[in-house]
Amino acid sequence: MTLLTQLDNGADREWYATQAVQHGWSRTLLALHIKNRLRLRQGAAVTNFEARLPASDSALARETLKDPYLFDFLGLGDDAHEREVENGLIRHITHFLLELGAGFAFVGRQFRLEVAGDEFFIDLLFYHTRLKCYVVVELKATAFKPDTRGSSTSTCRPSMLR
Fold this sequence. Notes:
2 domains, three-stranded antiparallel beta sheet, 8 helices, 6 strands, globular
């Protein structure tokens, strides 16, 4: 009934029905994903996967990510700082993992990484069980400024992560 009453498009109904069966969504979770327009966000994140991954892995990796991620459940204002967003996500890790999608496992926060003698701290580190790779989430409350090593650009608001 949720598919019939909340969706007008047959292709959308089929996509959400397939996802619900594949991921074992409850009716409530299905309705939430429809409300949050998951189908439009799924696979829309800006990435460098095509340039950095083999073609066979690139499509699966791209479809794993969304743009934007919705963090309304944190209850933070648009002027929240990165650390407030991070702390809120940790407090709501179950909701956060459901928003990320199937296959994500939380590894840690402020994970120390050393590259060419420089020390970095990854805001949030996940492992994706289907992709069999780590996924790094770097939170930015302002426009992301890439360094000279070739990072991609991104923005972050408490209710939305790109």
